[in-house]
Specification:
This protein has three domains: 210 residues, no CATH class; 152 residues, Glutaredoxin (3-Layer(aba) Sandwich); 142 residues, Jelly Rolls (Sandwich). The chain contains 16 helices and 15 strands. The chain is flat, with a radius of gyration of 28 Å. GO terms for molecular function: oxidoreductase activity. It holds the Pfam family Thioredoxin_10. Keywords: Membrane, Transmembrane, Transmembrane helix.
Length: 574
């Protein structure tokens, strides 16, 4: 209800924007006619048209993320044209001239009260709505981010309609006040033109940057990404990160926890055509919520793959639901590569809009939900561990369905590399984010300089879990980007393993780095992505294992990037 109210109020405030001026003459032309027959249908037509245009924008945002090369070019062309229209008013006048002429013709044809009809006023509202939509679009995009996270749906359309009705209400009030409002708006037109041209220049700069690959993945981040501060705060409020449950009920507690939530919200499927809850009746289903840069998910993955191999012929269907944490994990190409690299054979649903996540009311990576052959959720397990117990649940549900599970022994998994089980010691360093939105224990003098280049000083680290930056960085809410060669990160950690989620701002320009432990080359303690001398290269957006010791110890870690443009997201430990 609060979101609907905000949408309505945001629409009501649209009238203060100078670019609403092209709409106002058509509105005021109806001021002397009966409101129910003339003004009301005009405003209704505008509201419906605008809601439709904005809904297409939301749907289009999701399409851009998954667009192939031709779709990407088409999107850039459209964005470029939009930028030119904003930058050059003369072009905008020519482009909108047919709509303006239509509005004027409709206005003249219905000038007399006797000739004014509901339908003609409605058509006039449709025409003026098409003029109005580009003006209010940027404001709407920010206000309705919460709706965009859910994707195109009935609720999203209702929110868009609430926004449009709010704007129609303010214009209805303008009908009562008349020309005085129009005169006040005209006084602000000069500032509005400069604002319009500034927006146009910014759009064209973005198109050029994307076209030359200067900011890889920008379209993905702009479309439904959770990386913007506003979006991330909404996501955190909807799904706060609570403490992982310490104890779970035993395998004998297989209560009916409700129906199998819908899978219809998936934005794509890999290794399978789209699956539905209804189509999976008669099968035992294991839902695995994961994301490919999550170390806990990667350590659970060998067991999930083993269960799929052992019980697929006995009636088990494993479905991985890939719900991204970082923007780059929303790119289907990145997920497809991760699935191939990890050797995942079972179906994977892409949950970029968190629709399936919300359907299960999930809050954790990884999370396993066990569903019986009747389509009822019977158990859930969160985090790593309790593998034998989870397998007993699978066996019981298969037996309930009349299947023969054979040996009751649990699968034996000898995972290596990143997938190797975490160390037994629980006093290891915690997951630590590099972006300022969720960072902790950052000790560089002066703290973060947000969203701007800054030369950080690397202090001595004396306390466990302290970390700092050195050299030139631009720190954003989600991650930090190195702005010059020689940028460094230092961390005083305890653990067997140290991982860091990294990416390259330019996918075509790998970033070289060198790791030291206690000021020396790691030698035998190097991770999978580092050699004994400490050298490595960032070639893609993923989790990198930088340290693998024989046992958990407290050490001083430092990584120096020899090239600019690295993206650093989060540390995890094992």
């Amino acid at each position: 209800m609060i979101l609907f109210l905000l949408a309505y109020l945001g629409g009501a405030l649209t009238i203060v924007s100078p670019c609403i001026l092209p709409v106002l003459p058509f509105v005021f032309a109806r001021a002397d006619q009966p409101f129910a027959r003339s003004g009301l249908p005009l405003l209704l037509g505008m509201a419906i048209t605008f809601a439709g245009v904005a809904t297409l924008a939301v749907v289009g945002g999701g399409w851009v993320v998954q667009a192939n090369a031709y779709g990407r070019v088409a999107a850039l062309v459209v964005l470029g044209l939009f930028g030119l229209l904003l930058l050059f008013p003369s072009l905008a006048d020519r482009a909108t001239r047919p709509l303006v002429a239509l509005g004027a013709r409709l206005s003249q044809n219905t000038a007399g009260p006797a000739r004014s009809t509901f339908l003609s006023s409605l058509l006039l509202g449709v025409a003026t709505g098409l003029l109005w939509a580009p003006c209010a679009g940027p404001v709407l995009g920010l206000l309705l981010t919460g709706a965009a996270l859910q994707g195109a749906s009935a609720q999203t359309s209702l929110l868009l309609l609430a926004y449009a009705l709010g704007a129609a209400t303010s214009l209805a009030l303008a009908l009562l006040v008349g020309g005085r409002v129009f005169a006040a708006m005209k006084r602000s037109i000069r500032a509005g033109e400069w604002l319009r041209r500034g927006l146009g220049a910014a759009v064209l700069a973005g198109v050029i940057a994307i076209g030359f690959g200067l900011d890889t993945g920008l379209l993905t981040r702009l479309s439904l990404a959770s990386t913007a501060r506003f979006e991330q705060s909404l996501l955190d409020r909807l799904h706060p990160e609570g403490a992982m449950p310490k104890a779970m009920p035993g395998a004998d507690a297989l209560a009916d926890k409700g129906p199998f939530p819908s899978l219809a919200g998936a934005t794509g499927w890999m290794n399978s055509p789209p699956l539905t809850a209804e189509g999976l009746r008669g099968k035992v289903v294991l839902i695995d919520f994961w994301t490919y840069s999550c170390i806990n998910c990667l350590r659970t993955l060998p067991y999930v793959k083993a269960w799929d191999a052992k019980y697929r012929d006995k009636g088990l269907v494993v479905i991985g639901v890939h719900t991204p944490e970082f923007a780059f994990e929303r790119d289907p190409a990145n997920v497809r590569k991760a699935i191939a690299d990890l050797g995942i054979p079972y179906p994977v649903a892409l949950d970029n809009r968190y629709a399936i996540w919300r359907g299960f009311d999930n809050q954790y990576w990884p999370a396993h939900y066990f569903i019986d052959a009747k389509g009822r959720v019977r158990a859930a397990r969160f985090g790593e561990g309790h593998y034998a117990e989870s397998e007993r649940i699978i066996q019981r549900l298969i037996a309930e369905n009349g299947g023969a599970v054979g040996t009751m022994d649990a699968v034996e998994v000898a995972a290596t590399g990143v997938g190797e089980a975490e160390s037994a010691r629980k006093d290891r360093s915690p997951e630590t984010y590099v972006g300022y939105a969720r960072a902790a224990n950052f000790v560089s003098p002066g703290g973060f300089v947000r969203d701007a280049r800054h030369d950080y000083v690397l202090p001595a680290l004396t306390q466990r879990n302290d970390w700092a930056l050195g050299g030139a960085w631009v720190v954003g809410g989600e991650h930090a980007v190195s702005a010059a060669p020689g940028a460094r990160i230092a961390f005083r950690f305890r653990g067997r393993d140290l991982h860091l989620v990294l990416g390259a701002a330019d996918a075509k320009a790998p970033v070289r780095f060198r790791v030291t432990i206690d000021g020396k080359a790691p030698g035998a303690d190097h991770g999978l992505d580092v050699d004994a001398a400490g050298n490595g290269v960032v070639t893609g957006q993923r989790l990198y294992q930088l340290v693998r010791q024989q046992g958990p110890r407290e050490r001083s870690f430092q990584i120096e990037f020899q090239d600019p443009g690295v993206q650093a997201f989060a540390f995890t430990f094992g």
